[in-house]
Design goal:
Shape: globular
Low-confidence stretches: none
CATH topology: Restriction endonuclease-like alpha-beta roll fold
Number of strands: 11
Largest sheet: 6 strands, mixed
Helix content: 25-40%
Strand content: 35-45%
Strand order of the largest sheet: 3-4-5-6-7-11
Distance between the termini: 42 Å
CATH class: Alpha Beta
Mean pLDDT: 92
Structural class: alpha/beta
CATH superfamily: Restriction endonuclease-like alpha-beta roll domain
């Protein structure tokens, strides 16, 4: 019998002064059995980073042809495709052909650095691609916020993010690689 996804609920308040976006989102995250808290929380961070009323979590690990998150317009055209982790370069190239804009949020310290070094020249040829990297300290601090029911506030100013629960504030400053 297959192990089912674990469901997490997050009430996320976002005050993004850089984009003048202020909203509350009630989110349901399904954590795949092979997914870590760190990856799940980086997905949640990616939602906060690109928050929009039409941004949704896709099937991600459960589907070969869907990203971690995406935003579509009313016609079904993909406006934004967001991947989390260290996706294959061919997968990113395919995503760039399907979406108007593609973003990757990488994490993993030295492994992420090696992934970037190996793929940088190929990624630079892709139009509409943005890649950000999170420090190991940031992604691990985000993982520490994970709980089955979360109430989080995210404040954004000058490209810096502060994610707060009732006891802890995590500072995240994504480094733009591309």
């Amino acid at each position: 019998m297959a192990i089912k996804a674990t469901i997490f609920k997050a009430d996320l308040q976002i005050a993004d002064m850089d984009r003048n976006y202020y909203a509350e989102h009630s989110l349901t995250l399904a954590r795949h059995p092979s997914e870590t808290d760190e990856r799940m929380m980086v997905r949640l961070f990616a939602f906060a980073m690109f928050a929009h009323e039409h941004l949704v979590f896709a099937k991600g690990l459960n589907a070969d042809d869907e990203p971690g998150l995406w935003r579509m317009d009313l016609t079904g055209a993909i406006k934004l495709w967001i991947e989390v982790g260290l996706p294959d370069e061919k997968w990113i190239r395919k995503a760039c052909g399907r979406a108007e804009e593609v973003a990757v949020i990488s994490y993993g310290g030295r492994t992420a650095d090696m992934w970037w070094d190996a793929n940088k020249s190929k990624f630079e040829r892709q139009e509409h691609l943005r890649i950000y990297n999170l420090s190991p300290e940031s992604s691990q601090a985000l993982a520490a916020l994970a709980s089955r029911t979360m109430r989080l506030q995210c404040s954004v100013q000058d490209g810096q993010f502060w994610i707060t629960d009732t006891l802890t504030t995590v500072h995240v400053e994504p480094m733009k690689l591309l």
